[in-house]
Amino acid sequence: MRVTVLGSGSSGNCTLVATAEACLLIDLGFGPRSLERRMRQAGIDNLRPEAILITHGHRDHCQGVGRFVDQNPVPVYTNPGTRAEVPQLVELDCWKPFETGRPFSIGDIDIEPFPIPHDAAEPVGFRLTDGKTSGVVATDLGRLGPEVINKLRECDWIVLESNHDEEMLRVGPYPWRLKQRVLGASGHLSNEAAARFLTHHFDGSSRHIFLAHLSRKNNHPDVALYSAKRALASRRFALLESCRLHLTHQSRPSIVLEL
C-alpha cells in the first residue's frame, strides 16, 4: 500500500491511497492541474486515480471534484448527507452512495466510513485495509470520542488532525465567533487534543502518523511536531522510537509511504 497526503489544510485537502488493484483519492479540495503537479512532485504521476471518496461537504475537501470528473470520469463516493450538502455533487452522474457505518470495497481495499463530530451535514472518517495494511483518515473533527478512538486502533498509519495551537488561536486574528467554532466539539482538533490522544489512548500499533490540517494562522509545523513528539516520548514504552511523525502541507505533498 502506498499512502501520501497530497495537500492538507484550508487551501485544499487530498490523500492518495494506492494498492496493486486500486488507486483512491480521499477528498479533492483543489483542481486537476494542482493535483497533477502534486503527484508529479511526489513521484507518483504514473498512478491514475480510479475513484474519489469524500469525507464531508466543505469546499476545501470537495471543490476540485467536478472539474476532475469532467476530465476523468471516475466514480465519486459520498453518503447521502454530503451529496445533498454540495450542489456540484448532486449534479454528478457518477455518484456512488455509501452508508455511514457500513463497509464497502473498491478493488482490493475494504473501506469503513465512520461518523466524526464536525459542523457538516454527515461527516465521516475512513478506515482502509487491503488485508495486509490498514490505515485511518481522521481530520476535521472537534473531539476524539471513544468511537473514533476505537477506529484508530490496530492500524499501520493514521492521518490525524493537529489543526491549531489553542493559545495561538485565542490570541490570534480570527473573529471571536470563528474561534468558538474551531474550538468547539464540532470544530477542529488542536495540537493539545492530538497530544492527549497520543499520551492516553494511542495503542502504539501505527508506525506512521501524519499530522494534518495545520492552520497557517493559528499553528506552526514546529509547534505541532513538538507537541506530538513530547506526547510519544512521555509514554512508558518509548513510542517515539517505533512511530514516525510526518508533517503535511497546504501546497505540496507529504512523504510517500510504501507499506
Architecture overview:
- The strands form 2 sheets. Strands 6-5-4-3-2-1-14 form a 7-stranded mixed β-sheet. The protein has a 7-stranded mixed β-sheet with strand order 7-8-9-10-11-12-13, with helices on one face.
- The model has no long low-confidence stretch (mean pLDDT 96).
- Strand 12 (208-212), helix 10 (221-233) and strand 13 (244-247) form a beta-alpha-beta unit.
- With 259 residues, it is an alpha/beta fold.
- The chain has helices spanning 32-42, 59-62, 65-71, 80-85, 87-90, 146-151, 166-171, 176-183, 191-200, 221-233; strands at 2-7, 14-18, 23-26, 51-53, 76-78, 95-97, 104-106, 109-115, 124-129, 134-138, 157-161, 208-212, 244-247, 257-258.
- It is globular, with a radius of gyration of 17 Å.
- Helix 9 packs parallel to helix 10 (221-233).
